[in-house]
Structures are given as structure tokens and as C-alpha cells.
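User: Run a structure prediction on this.
Assistant: Running it now.
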Amino acid sequence: YKKPRKLGGSATMSLLGANLHLEGTSKSKKFTFLLGARKKSTKYILNSLDTQGEYNPDFADIQTYLNYEFNDKWSISYLGNYSRNIYSHIPQNRITRFGTISVPLEVRIFFEGQEIDKYETFFNAIKSSWRASENTNLNLTASTFSTYESETFDILGQYWLYEIDNDLGSDNFGEATFNRGVGTHLNHARNYLKASVHSLQHNGLYTKDNLEFRWGIKTQSESIQDILSEWTMIDSAGFSLPHPPDYLADTLQTPTSFDLEDVLKTEASLDSYRHTAYMQYQQTIDRIILNAGVRGSYWDLNEEYLVSPRASIAYKPIWDKDIIFRASSGVYYQSPFYRELRDLEGQLNRNIKAQKSTHFIIGSDYNFNIWQRPFKLVTELYYKELENLIPYEIENVRIRYYAENIASGFAKGIDIRLNGEFVKGMESWASLSIMKTAADIENDFYTDENGKINEIGYYARPTDQRVNFSLFFQDYLPKMPHFKMHLNLMYGSGFPLGTPETYKGEYNFRMPDYKRVDIGFSIVLKKEGKKKKGFNPFNFTETTWISLEAFNLLDIDNTVSYLWIQDVGGTQFAVPNYLTSRQLNLKLHLSF
């Protein structure tokens, strides 16, 4: 959100969408503006999914930032944003192979129906800035945010589950032979959410020599209306699941009513106020930087007062090496928003408390040279004690909260990142993260087949991804520096996962590891400050470049979630939902 000095802009066009931005200023330089718009569609990418059908996702947003300076001390600015996301999906069929080498399986699903989801958000903010003195800056901001969401779908899926012939000597090797089960599932939803948040905030900054003092106070109102209507019907080989008991008798008896799965029907509304305030002090003393602060808040819904102190220290020793050591600690509260209040049955828990995290972090920043080129190594080691946790489950790609503070846990790990010019003049980086996070639900247990009661204890949280590695590397042709290449490598170990409706400790397997390689090539068609001789359609621009990217170059099937199907005996099978396969994207960027 810069303040432009002259009229300019940029435009980007690709197979996935287009971006446009304009900027400028008045002759007096008192008024400046920024305007940006984006249009994006992933229809091209989604056509590579296992589920075939008509995918019509459409995303568009527009944003503007206006600023007017009355004089050297007083200015006023406006920030506005509107975004619209519409997802329309008419599935047709799906064939997915999964399982193991010893038990290979194939599921074939034929669909009817459609899904239409709409999300609209509006954001407006006006800020008045006043420079009260040479050392003091004061701001007053009023903002409003509104969102409208609807999720509507009726999708009928009829599936056939086959075993694959894995006998190398068989004439039918690799073909679907034995039908293990057939069934039907019908998913229905009519969910509507409307929320609006209004706030008024003041913050200030005082600086003098090596001292910096910040403060702020904010009041916020929230209004939410929610309507939920969801259910699932499962039919396997002519039997609705769960199947009511059958009756055989001399006289006809009235059967038990059929039940639907995952029934959720509720309406809820919520109106509340939040008030927050903070102070932060920073002082530089020789080679030491001290930073300390405190944040307080109050929410009238649960009448909870929160106070969270925090402090950090940074020290640069008198060494030949350019290195800084850092240590910090503090108490952080995550006050719940609406979705954390809503339990698995759609009821609101208005007495829920904020989740608490106590942080302990040590780290270092090390600047050095290799091959006479600059590099920076950043390392952080952390431990977080978690209290008043609200357990949750991941259903496909949605999060379902328990809406109760019934768990405690921890998160610990190390982050390492190396930035530098592996190729002269080109920034590249590599990062490695190792983490473990677990939680324990109070008084949780399960009864095994022998009737024995077992304590569950700590279980891996859904975000427990132990290893995450990424590498971004750039290079160019020695005699053609305008022709560049970039390579992006990503690896992440699998997340814990369990079958639906199991106790929390029964995360009996993990999703497959995430692996992906992207590569891209770009050519500068017009360099800043230089014009091509003769006719060139890009001479009117400051810079122009074109790129070709290949996403998921090795065409790896990465699992994002699972579709659970079951037979009449209740045996469940996890059918993986894969992310997109290899895709190409052509992009043209202009700046003027």
C-alpha cells in the first residue's frame, strides 16, 4: 500500500486468470490512488481431477486504496475491498484405484445432481493519521466487514467397489474382477451464513532516540446469523445404513424408522462486543534490543477478561561474524470466533473460553558470504504449551469443532531457512521444519472388544506434520541473462488420519507424504529503461516478461482427503481424493 509518485500500472494474463492494477497521483501530490482487480478461474486445472464433470469456479475481487494529505501533519485514507467466489460443480463419474499391492481396489462412481457454493465479502476502512509532533503519530480507524456464504448441494453417487486381479500370470491381470460391494450415497445441504463486524480503533507511536513506544485500543461489534441443514443417506446393496432391525413374527410389526447419517439442522444468531487494548515498549541499549508489551481484551459473550504479557531480547555480540541471537516468551490467547462456538450438532456454546498458548522461542540470524555472495541463515527453536484447547476434526476439507475447552497439549520444533545467491544476482532459498504437536482430551477413554476400558492419552493433532522441506532455486543462461529458470521442490510428511466416528486416539494411519516439483521458464521481452530498436509492441511498457510454468512436473498423485464408503456389514474403505495432475500455465506480465 505505497503512495505512488506518478501514473502507472501493470497487467498479468495467464491460463488461470488475469490481474490489473493502476496507480497515480494528483498534480499537487496530495492525492494518491491505487486500484487493483483480479479474475481467476481454476476450471482448466480442475479438469485433471479423478472426478469428471463440469467445474466452473469463478473468483473475482477489486481493491482500492485512496490517500489525501491535507498538510504535513494530517492525512486521511480509505481502503476498500470486494470479493466474490462462486463454485459450481456438476460431477459425472469417477474411477479411482487405491489399496495395497496385496489388496488392490478400484471404485467406480456415477453421479447425479450438482453443488453451488457462493461467498461474498465486503470490507471498508477509513483512517485518519495525525502527526502531533516530531516524535508522535496518532491514528484513528473505522472499519466494517461483511460476509455472505451459501453452500447448497444435492449429489447422488452410486458406487461399485472392485478387487483388482494382481496375479502376474493371469490373463485378467490389472483388470477389475471381483465385485466387493455396491451402494449409493446422497449428500444434501442448504447452509447459509451472514456475518458483519464493525470496529473503531485508535493506535499511536512515540519515538525518541533509541526508544519506541506503541499503544492502541479497539472496540468491535459482531453480528452473525447461521442456518444449517445437512444430511447424508447411505444405501449399500439395497440396505439403508444404519439399517434398522428386521422382524419375523406371526403378525406384521411396525419396523423401526430409517435413520439418516450426519443430520445437522439448526438456526443460530449471535450478537456480541469485543474490546482490546495493547502497549509495547522497545529500547535499544548498545548491542541489545529489548521489547516488552502487554495485551488485554474483554468479550461480553462469555464475560472473559484476558491479559497476555510478552517480551523478547536480541543481542549482537562483538564478533567478526555478523550474527544476532534472539529469545522471546509470552502468553497468547486465541479468542474463539463463531465456528469454534458451534459444536458437531450445530449448537452454540456461549460459555467457551479462549485457547491459551505459552511460547518459548530462541533463535539466531547469521549473515555471511560464500563465493563472495551474500547468504543469511535463520534458525528458530520453539516450544508452546497449549491450554483450553478446542478439539476439532477435519471432514474432507472442512473443520468441525467440538466447541468445548476439554484438551491441553503442546507443539515443539525447529525451523531453519537459508537465503542466498546460489547463482550470482539471483535469490534462492531452502527451508526445513521439524515439528511435533499433540493434545490430550480430559477423561477420554474407549472400550475395546474385550470390554476393557483404555485411557487414550495424547493423540497427534490433525496439524501434526513432522517434516516439511522446500527449495526454491533460480538460474539464467550466462550469455542470455534475460532468459531465466526457476525450480520449486516441496516435501511434507503425511498428516494423521482416522476413520470417521472413531475415538480421538485412533489415528491409526497417516496420509501419504506430499511431494511436488514445479519448474518455470521466463524471458524478459522489454527491460526497464531500454527500448528495442525498430517496431516492438512492448516499447510502450516499462517492463514485459512472459513465462511458462509446469506444475507438478513429475505428475505425482498427492492425496488431499478421503471419500469414505462402506458395505452393508459396516466395513469402511478410504478412497483417496487426489490433487491435480501435471498442468501448464502460460503467463504474460506488463508494467507501465
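The chain has a mean pLDDT of 86.
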